[in-house]
């Protein structure tokens, strides 16, 4: 099993503010969908609640400390730790950790790979992606995308693997 963290973060590692994204990058959404469809996606409760509805064709593992939290949605399982989520995701060769900030911090120890979209701008935020330690992670690919009529910011897809 290869656990992958997937995120989009600004130059200052900004992820979001008030439980919302800071930018709209259609190509990044498309890439996220392509990579995660058919897989287990692991997230915190606030990230789950930021979706209008569960993402199609994915099994959602929702981490919360609230023992009474539940959801009626199909393909959504509530767990109480990242370790428990990873254990449940063992059936999937490539489960994805999709946020938010707290879950990414915990996920650094569990992950084998990071798929990061680096948005080339700094943003005011209340949630941040953890710093990537180059002693632990090796950049294996990068793909730059300039801003255009559909994308307000330049961005680069960065893929890291654990050394």
UniProtKB/TrEMBL annotation:
Pathway: Cofactor biosynthesis; tetrahydrofolate biosynthesis; 5,6,7,8-tetrahydrofolate from 7,8-dihydrofolate: step 1/1. Keywords: NADP, One-carbon metabolism, Oxidoreductase. One of its GO terms (cellular component) is cytosol. Residues 2-162 form the DHFR domain. InterPro entries: DHFR, DHFR-like_dom_sf, DHFR_dom. Belongs to the dihydrofolate reductase family. This is Dihydrofolate reductase. It comes from Saonia flava.
């Amino acid at each position: 099993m290869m656990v992958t963290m997937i995120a989009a973060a600004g130059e200052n590692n900004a992820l979001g503010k008030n439980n919302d994204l800071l930018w709209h990058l259609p190509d990044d959404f498309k890439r996220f969908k392509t990579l995660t469809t058919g897989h287990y996606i692991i997230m915190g409760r606030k990230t789950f609640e930021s979706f209008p509805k569960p993402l199609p064709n994915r099994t959602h593992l929702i981490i919360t400390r609230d023992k009474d939290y539940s959801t009626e949605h199909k393909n959504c399982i509530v767990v109480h730790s990242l370790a428990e989520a990873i254990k449940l995701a063992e059936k999937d060769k490539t489960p994805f950790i999709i946020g938010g900030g707290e879950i990414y911090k915990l996920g650094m120890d569990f992950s084998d790979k990071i798929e990061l979209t680096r948005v080339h701008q700094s943003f005011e935020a209340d949630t941040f992606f953890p710093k990537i330690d180059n002693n632990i992670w090796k950049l294996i690919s990068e793909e730059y995308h300039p801003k255009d009529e559909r994308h307000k910011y330049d961005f680069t897809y960065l893929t890291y693997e654990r050394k």
